[in-house]
């Protein structure tokens, strides 16, 4: 008798985590997974190159933070504001902050504050490559 192979352990772990979440946390996790998937597709198109150009550093297109914002919404807003940054370089830190919110219940407001600091720090490093 043939049995189908087990999914990889990380996939099984993700399934256990998902099943343990309430409905709202599940929706948040799925929105974050959609965000990660869109990032993967974007990278495939080669967008988000933060290598210095000959004209100098690009300025952020600052989008005002809304009074009520989700963590996923903040990531999207900051990604649009700091379009010149390579988000692959921030993916680990961004994912850790999102996990702290979704899995550990860290308040969205605090996570968004840290996300804003993360993007600003990476923007400063980007500007420094121009000698600005």
List the helices and strands and how they pair.
Blueprint: H1 9-20, H2 23-45, H3 71-81, H4 91-102, H5 108-128
Walk me through what this model shows.
There is one protein chain. Helix 3 (71-81) runs parallel beside helix 5 and helix 4 (91-102) packs antiparallel against helix 5. The chain contains five helices and no strands. It has a domain at 24-42 and 61-128. The termini are far apart. The chain has helices at 9-20, 23-45, 71-81, 91-102, 108-128. The chain is an all-alpha fold. The longest helix is centred in the N-terminal third of the chain and has 23 residues, at 23-45.
Q: What is the 3D form?
A: globular
Uncertain spans: 45-50
In DSSP terms, counting alpha (H) and pi (I) runs of 4 or more, how many helices? 5
Strand proportion, as a percent range, falls in under 5%
Main sheet attributes: strand count, strand direction, barrel closure? none
The helix/strand order is HHHHH
Radius of gyration: 18 Å
Structure summary:
By secondary structure, the protein is an all-alpha fold.
Main attributes?
globular, single chain, 132 residues, mainly alpha
């Amino acid at each position: 008798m043939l049995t189908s192979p087990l999914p990889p352990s990380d996939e099984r772990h993700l399934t256990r985590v998902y099943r343990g979440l309430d409905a709202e946390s599940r929706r948040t996790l799925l929105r974050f997974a959609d965000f990660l998937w869109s990032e993967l597709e974007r990278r495939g198109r080669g967008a988000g190159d933060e290598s210095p150009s000959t004209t100098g550093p690009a300025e952020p297109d600052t989008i005002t933070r809304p009074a009520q914002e989700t963590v996923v919404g903040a990531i999207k807003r900051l990604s649009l504001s700091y379009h010149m940054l390579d988000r692959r370089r921030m993916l680990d830190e961004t994912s850790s902050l999102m996990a702290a919110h979704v899995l550990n219940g860290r308040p969205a407001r605090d996570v968004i504050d840290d996300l804003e600091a993360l993007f600003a720090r990476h923007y400063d490093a980007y500007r420094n490559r121009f000698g600005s």
